[in-house]
Specification:
Outer Surface Protein A, domain 3, mainly alpha, 3-stranded antiparallel sheet, 11 helices, 262 residues, two-stranded antiparallel sheet, 56% helix, elongated, DNA polymerase, domain 1
Length: 262
């Protein structure tokens, strides 16, 4: 390590100061700092962190309770190092950390991570930098002949648990996630910057995933879905799917159509 003695001493002091702020009970107070002033920094930074997380995960916080939630946030503060300097990225870092922590810390709440991911999606959609233009409905046939364009802010997610129902009045048990059913959701921001939530069945979610990932026309995507389902009446699937696509277009979840050759 290079640097002058004064520089090194300052760096050690800064590291000790930060360690104490993160973990007041486990780290010593740096020499020369009055306890009262140290508590101001400890409280201020923890409350700021907690405030950002509370804004993103209000349901999880209510379900865990004040004590368990604050203990969890403190553990995150002590253990994790956020790579991004942006405050809006703190909830995402917390969610990544929770993916491993939640099953170990809350084995009686197997739905917790999925619930928190669902809550975080709203923030991800709201802060997405993409511009959303007003939608005009050009007709159902274009959606079949061309490639439907998913709203640029859209997020598609499927979970084992019905996360939209989980709350103080409904706490999922292991049985909801053990039946193999998928609970799928589409979140997107409309042209008025309002976040919209839409429930989908797994077949509809698969249709949108195919369109988005493979650039298939509406008709080709529906034929592929029908083949995957082993559905003998593929034209019936196309007819039903066309109505779904038209409805999503009117709702702003689909924002346009492009040629397959574009």
């Amino acid at each position: 390590m290079s640097g002058s003695p004064d520089t090194l001493r300052l760096r050690d002091y800064q590291l000790a100061f930060a360690a104490r702020i993160r973990d007041p009970r486990g780290q010593p107070r740096p020499q020369g700092i009055p306890a009262r002033r140290m508590r101001v920094y400890e409280t201020l930074l923890f409350n700021n962190l907690n405030g950002f997380l509370l804004a993103c995960f209000p349901v999880a916080r209510r379900l865990l309770g004040v004590r368990a939630w604050r203990k969890l946030v403190r553990q995150f503060f002590v253990e994790q190092r956020c790579a991004s300097p942006l405050f809006r990225d703190i909830p995402g870092a917390f969610l990544d950390w929770m993916q491993e922590v939640a099953p170990q810390t809350f084995p009686d709440r197997p739905w917790l991570y999925e619930l928190m991911h669902y809550e975080w999606l709203e923030l991800a959609v709201m802060t997405d930098a993409a511009e959303v233009e007003a939608v005009t409905d050009d007709g159902q046939e274009d959606l079949l002949a061309g490639v439907p364009l998913l709203n640029a802010t859209a997020r598609l997610a499927c979970y084992r648990y019905p996360v939209h129902r989980i709350g103080p009045r409904f706490k999922a048990t292991g049985t909801e996630g053990a039946d193999g059913a998928s609970h799928c959701y589409l979140l997107y921001r409309d042209d008025r910057d309002v976040v919209r939530f839409r429930m989908l069945n797994p077949v509809s979610a698969r249709l949108l995933a195919l369109i988005d990932a493979e650039g298939l026309s509406g008709r080709d995507a529906l034929y592929k879905v029908a083949a995957e389902l082993g559905h003998a009446q593929s034209e019936t699937v196309v007819e039903t799917g066309a109505m779904l696509l038209a409805d999503l277009r009117r709702a702003g979840a689909l924002t346009g159509v492009r040629s397959r050759h574009a």
